[in-house]
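Example 4.3 (complexes with small molecules)
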Amino acid sequence: MLLDVTDLRKTFPARTGLFGNVIDRVHAVDGVSFRIAEGRTLGLVGESGCGKSTVGRAILRLIEPSSGTIRFQGDDITNLPPKQMRALRRRMQIVFQDPYSSLNPRKRAGDIVAEPLLVHGIANAAERREMTEAIFAKVGLQPRQMGLFPHQFSGGQRQRISIARALALGPAFIVADEPVSALDVSVQAQVINLLMDLQAQDGLSYLFISHNLAVVEHVSHDVAVMYLGRIVEHTDKATIFAKPLHPYTQALMAAVPVADPSVRRDKKHVMGDVPSPIDRPKGCHFHPRCPLAQPRCRTEEPVLREVQPNHRVACHLVA
Amino acid sequence: MAPVLEVSGLSTVFHTRAGIVRAVQDVSFSVEAGETLAIVGESGCGKTMTALSLMRLIPSPPGEITAGSVKVAGTDLLKLDEPGMRKMRGSQIAMIFQEPMTALNPLLTVGRQIAEMVSLHENVSRRAANARAVEMLHHVRIPAPERRAREYPHQMSGGMRQRAMIAMALACRPKVLIADEPTTALDVTIQAQVLDLIGDLRKELGTAVVLITHDLGVVAETADRMIVMYAGRKVEEGTTKDLFADPSHPYLQGLLASIPKFGAGEGTRLREIPGIVPALNNLPKGCAFAPRCSAAVAKCQEAIPPLETKRPGHAAACWVT
Ligand SMILES: Nc1ncnc2c1ncn2[C@@H]1O[C@H](COP(=O)(O)OP(=O)(O)OP(=O)(O)O)[C@@H](O)[C@H]1O
Ligand SMILES: Nc1ncnc2c1ncn2[C@@H]1O[C@H](COP(=O)(O)OP(=O)(O)OP(=O)(O)O)[C@@H](O)[C@H]1O
Ligand code: SF4
Ligand SMILES: [Mg+2]
Ligand SMILES: [Mg+2]
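Answer. The structure with magnesium ion bound is encoded below.
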């Protein structure tokens, strides 16, 4: 297994008292476990604030997990000291949503992409230039564009630069956090195709974070659905889209507008807002919005259980 | 039925140091009572500027509406003076935005703002205006409307603020509602609720809705007809069903092919539209889509294709298809 995450938790202090004591906590990630194999993509979906980015950052130790373990290529990296962690970043990288703010506007595109090589002391200047040219070509940019600044590129091209930078050290695993959400539809396709081509060529693995279910369905092998810091359903892509079992997954799928006017349906939409991650509902976190909720759901927390081989669901009503 | 909103030949420019930005060029469309027309197109193609032109809210300078007419129930808004236009806003034509805080005043309670909108247009008592505010909040399905009316915008969730803005926009029963990306910033479950709400109110009140969005899924689920804009111009128009089933313009063909579809199967590649949208202060001579178009012929670089009827109720601006 390339990546094995067990019972990952992360809380943030939400409010501190007079004496610096923490009064409330944001339970951003609350006991999340999953695995990703070589060459596979796990899609992580859920609505704003459910903890997707926090999961992605915590696995790369860009933020420190509150508890849980992260094993990468067999090694427990949860408590790896910073220096070793930095070395490990050669093999695990992240691509962010916003290609505008994640690139240094004062650096040339070529230098941005070559920077990780420089930081890790890889190769001499001439070799680095050659490697950078190769990466540029790989992500569909012209090597002669290496001297341009980020603002001289379009949104899709800027996202290619971020991907090129993430690829510079030849990683095995990339967290792609909403990599196409800021892009125009006609440009989205370019970046999605690129990510999939790279996987086919180099056997990369992805944690693909997105709130766009159609995109997730397109790129993922497996899908995990999060609600208020927890995974509520997790199985392979075909199953989750054909036969979602958790009422929240069903609600999410019913809410997604389908780009086909011939299948316009009269759908029942789930009511209410997502509750605050500070003061979460007791029992099943979804019960105030759940059309199927039973008295038991208000008091007892459903655990994530394997209801069918490789299909895990956290709902009392799913046998 | 006569359309309630008739826009014809609308052109809006911005005078900038980098030259004239042609944000909206010769755009025409009409909407009937109870109908939803979607305006789709990529970032920067002129959707918001079209909407702001209809509302006469283009910042001027640097902006200027240079041609066209915008008729609501027969009255040309572009011919009105500012006091006359102020009377129309809210009572005849209203607009909601992506970010509710652009429309809501953070310092006033939500109920007070809606009541003031009512008082501005109708000769009613303060008490009646307040009662209408509560009724509108109830109408947009805000629970405990009496209590919510006394809250400030920041005390509400994003979805609730969006509803409050809709309540304010519809308080005086305008004939036309322009919704500019009303759900883009919302979660999908909340988006579905808000779109349901707009659809229901449209049916109940007979409002004509102009829905601006870049999300083709939202268009497919809510719009009766749609127009597609590219680089400031309308390039295709028709019923939603017809355009999705059989798009004429290579741009719409490309857009529809580039979005992932459910159940497409393992490893299928999406179709890409190469290149990027042109800058509006430096448009190509011919068809603005020509540099990205796989169907382009020599003529496309030379002259702008006129909008032609391809089938009844379906028009497109393309030399080839
Ligand atoms: N540094 C922080 N301090 C306090 N709270 C935080 C911090 N980072 C995230 N949170 C909170 O943790 C929760 C999860 O946030 P996260 O960014 O992981 O959500 P997300 O699923 O990525 O949402 P989105 O789809 O909006 O990106 C949210 O309630 C957020 O406000
Ligand atoms: N004040 C201004 N000065 C100069 N150009 C402007 C100004 N405001 C808008 N524009 C230009 O007008 C064009 C149309 O903008 P508009 O906001 O209508 O796009 P849009 O289709 O709504 O895009 P989005 O989907 O990003 O909201 C853009 O190219 C923009 O750069
Ligand atoms: S556990 Fe109960 S409330 Fe939670 S999703 Fe299942 S049925 Fe709904
Ligand atoms: Mg996030
Ligand atoms: Mg806009």
